[in-house]
Amino acid sequence: MSGTYGRGIFSVETRHHFEQLVELVDLVDNRFSFITHEFIENSFGRGIRLVILSGRVITTMKIKAVDGDFRANVPRSGIGPVVEIDNEVEFSALEATKLMSLGNAGVDLLFNKDGYVIYEINSSPGFIH
Question: Model-level pTM?
Answer without folding.
Answer: 0.72
